[in-house]
């Protein structure tokens, strides 16, 4: 069974703005005892600490800096829920001259960063009873968009890793949640040119509902729901089903 976030300790990467900030505030609203705001620059979380006092603890974590992830895990040994929200996006078409360099940049944060977070925090989650690992993927993980083709590729890869983590971490009773937002009203969404975008609060609410209900996939906004309506059958019959045979 999933669990209630009340009295739990949560860590959120990229917690200083956008979706990450909404997740942090939703966790506190639901009664989390403490939230680690994992950010690249500690000063970016000063307002959150000032507002919430000792319920928010800022820790340095940069997905591009493997040692910072290891150090953050050594600090947050009491964590019950890790939400890997941070990520990067660049507008890039696959045929542009620097597309490979852009893909390498996005893979480093969006895929290798996820793997580093999972590796660093899995022991703490295990020692605290299992808990949950939440990964912010995207609708772009199942539907590529040409104007940000490299981002779509990186999110498809992170979604694949998330599926594997779901099976691997099941052994230690860690619930894994894969979140697939569409256009969200954030700085990243604005940079991507989204004119109509949903509230980050929708994402935050959906995440903790999914933890409580022990659901793997989260499709939190209107565009995500539309994609899920077509994808749901495949997800239930293939992605969420254990398949014993090895791939060809």
From TrEMBL:
<feature type="domain" description="Ketoreductase">
    <location>
        <begin position="8"/>
        <end position="187"/>
    </location>
</feature>
<dbReference type="InterPro" id="IPR057326">
    <property type="entry name" value="KR_dom"/>
</dbReference>
<dbReference type="InterPro" id="IPR002347">
    <property type="entry name" value="SDR_fam"/>
</dbReference>
<dbReference type="InterPro" id="IPR020904">
    <property type="entry name" value="Sc_DH/Rdtase_CS"/>
</dbReference>
<dbReference type="InterPro" id="IPR036291">
    <property type="entry name" value="NAD(P)-bd_dom_sf"/>
</dbReference>
<protein>
    <submittedName>
        <fullName>SDR family oxidoreductase</fullName>
    </submittedName>
</protein>
<dbReference type="Pfam" id="PF00106">
    <property type="entry name" value="adh_short"/>
</dbReference>
<keyword id="KW-0560">Oxidoreductase</keyword>
<comment type="similarity">
    <text>Belongs to the short-chain dehydrogenases/reductases (SDR) family.</text>
</comment>
């Amino acid at each position: 069974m999933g669990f209630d976030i009340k009295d739990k300790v949560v860590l959120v990467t990229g917690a200083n703005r956008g979706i990450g900030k909404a997740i942090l505030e939703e966790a506190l609203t639901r009664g989390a005892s403490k939230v680690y705001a994992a950010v690249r620059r500690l000063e970016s979380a000063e307002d959150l600490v000032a507002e919430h006092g000792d319920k928010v603890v800022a820790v340095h974590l940069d997905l591009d800096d493997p040692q910072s992830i290891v150090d953050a895990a050594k600090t947050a040994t009491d964590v019950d829920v890790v939400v890997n929200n941070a990520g990067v996006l660049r507008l890039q078409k696959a045929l542009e001259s620097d597309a490979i360099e852009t893909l390498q940049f996005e893979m480093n944060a969006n895929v290798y960063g996820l793997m580093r977070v999972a590796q660093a925090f899995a022991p703490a989650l295990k020692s605290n009873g299992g808990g949950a690992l939440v990964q912010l993927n995207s609708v772009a993980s199942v539907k590529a968009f040409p104007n940000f083709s490299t981002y779509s590729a990186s999110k498809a890869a992170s979604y694949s890793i998330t599926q594997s983590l779901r099976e691997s971490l099941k052994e230690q009773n860690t619930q894994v949640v894969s979140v697939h937002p569409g256009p969200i009203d954030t700085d990243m969404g604005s940079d991507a040119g989204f004119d109509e975008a949903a509230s980050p609060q929708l994402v935050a609410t959906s995440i903790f509902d999914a933890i409580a209900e022990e659901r793997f996939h989260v499709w939190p906004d209107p565009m995500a729901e539309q994609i899920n309506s077509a994808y749901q059958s495949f997800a239930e019959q293939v992605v969420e089903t254990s398949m014993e045979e090895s791939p060809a």
